[in-house]
Write a structure and sequence with these properties.
The structure is a single chain. This protein is an alpha/beta fold. It contains 10 helices and 8 strands. It has a single domain, classed as P-loop containing nucleotide triphosphate hydrolases (Rossmann fold, 3-Layer(aba) Sandwich), CATH 3.40.50. β4 and β5 form a beta hairpin. The longest helix has 23 residues. The protein binds 2'-deoxycytidine-5'-monophosphate. The site of 2'-deoxycytidine-5'-monophosphate has 14 residues, from α2, α5 and α9.
Length: 233
């Protein structure tokens, strides 16, 4: 059996990172971890508990009360995020959270808290993790790194369709301004900003089908495994 590896998928908001990551994990029999869900769940906790996240000690105290883990759910056939015993996988997708999460994710103590847990989740390898800093900060030595991008109108339309199903009052303008704002904050923050790692393979899926991108990514895995087997021989 081939050695298990770590696969990181970073990129801009709504360019299909989680779709690809989930499909790859399923094909390879790996664990899929949505690191963005952790930042979203922390944001949910802060909002519900009126945590003043501009106050360093309030953030430290609040984080002591935040317990996160992922649980595989039969119904969705994927791992879902649990915040203090509550499945929050669906509430964290709301625009209320999307409007604040990038700001919360700039906080150094929040990042330290999330990154430590993400690194622990990858200690056994056999993991596909998507996010913004996975290939640069969380797993800088990952065997395979993918950086995803797509043109903004395509990303807006995809995210709009997804959110409209749950909230028919949402407008395309709201979705567009949220994506642009998050892209800006995520790539300009001081602590581990969104960057393409030097050794990440670029995947622009503007004009690519889901099947094409999956077979492209699986080919990369195959090539990586072959190179590793050569080195071991
Ligand atoms: O992947 P997502 O859209 O659910 O992520 C939500 C936000 O969380 C994103 O705008 C920035 C932040 N995030 C981050 O800073 N680092 C990560 N590894 C993942 C997400």
């Amino acid at each position: 059996m081939s050695k298990k590896i770590i696969i990181t998928i970073d990129g801009w908001s709504a360019c299909g990172k989680s779709t690809l990551a989930k499909q790859m994990a399923k094909k390879l029999g790996y664990v899929y971890i949505d690191s963005g869900a952790m930042y979203r769940a922390i944001t949910l906790y802060f909002l519900r508990n009126h945590t003043d996240w501009t106050d360093k000690s309030a953030v430290k105290d609040a984080l002591k009360q935040v317990h996160l883990h992922f649980e595989f759910t039969e119904k969705s056939q994927q791992s879902e995020i649990i915040l203090n015993d509550e499945n929050v996988e669906y509430v964290i997708r709301d625009l209320v959270i999307a409007e604040k999460v990038s700001e919360v994710a700039t906080i150094a103590d929040v990042r330290k808290f999330a990154v430590k847990q993400q690194q622990r989740m990858g200690s056994q390898k056999g993991i596909v993790m998507d996010g913004r800093d996975i290939g640069t900060t969380v797993f800088p030595d990952a065997e395979l790194k993918i950086f995803m991008t797509a043109d903004i109108p395509v990303r807006v339309e995809r995210r709009f369709k997804e959110m409209f199903e749950k909230n028919p009052n949402i407008t395309i303008e709201e979705v567009k301004s949220n994506l642009e704002m998050r892209d800006y904050i995520d790539s300009n923050r001081e602590v581990s900003p969104l960057r393409r790692a030097d050794d990440a393979v670029l995947l622009d899926n503007t004009d690519v089908t889901m099947e094409q991108q999956l077979s492209f990514a699986l080919k990369l895995v195959k090539e990586k495994r072959a190179a590793m087997a050569m080195q071991d021989a």
